Amino acid sequence: MENKKNKNQIKSFYIPLLLILVVIAGIVAFTTTVKEAKEASQNVGADKEDTVPVVARPSVETEMEDTEAVPETEDNKDAAVTPDMTEPESEEEAAAEEPAVPTFIAPTGGIITKGFSDTVPVFSETMNDYRVHTGVDVSAEVGEAVLAASDGTIGAIWDDPLMGKCMTVVHPGEFVSTYKGLGEILPDGIAQGVAVTSGQPIAAVGESAIIEIAEEPHVHFELTCSGVPVDPCEYVSFSAVDTYEE
Question: Which residue from 160, 149, 234, 153 is spatially nearest to 195, judged by alpha carbons?
């Protein structure tokens, strides 16, 4: 009986001890597993950081060495100037690029008998009324030469029912001079598209302008810039001005 009792006591002692050891072993195994998993995740993150490309930037000393390596010469001095360093174009330089206004001369040597008036109507002796006058009338004898007011190209030649024989000359800078009331016969070689020079005879004074037939002989001279009528007196020096006044 006593031996059986002792065996039972031994069992009651070792069984709890065994259970305790199993629990401790389980805790140690779990702790080890968690630690290994944490270290593994850190290693993966470190590997990703190692794969990020690193762009090598030249040092200041290297840039200075590269700059000093190319000596400055007359050929590459201008090339070293960048667009940002270029000074903006001045107003004078911009104006110089615009087409220059041609120099104009009077189509005849007479005086102005009727001036330019594109807004206020002026009296018409022939029509006996008031109407705008988009040119100037320059007195001249019938048959007197009509001169090109400046270098250019003959743009058109036509017969107008009211203003008679007409001609235009196209000049640089979008200027166009127009001559009306001309004689029917033109000088040899004068035709559409022909280049003419300033002062060259391009027609003769006539009496073909029916709408101005009551006035003394003259050539009706107009000037436009970009298609807009302008006062010829602002560009041409005429002999004198003797405009009609009521």
Answer: 153
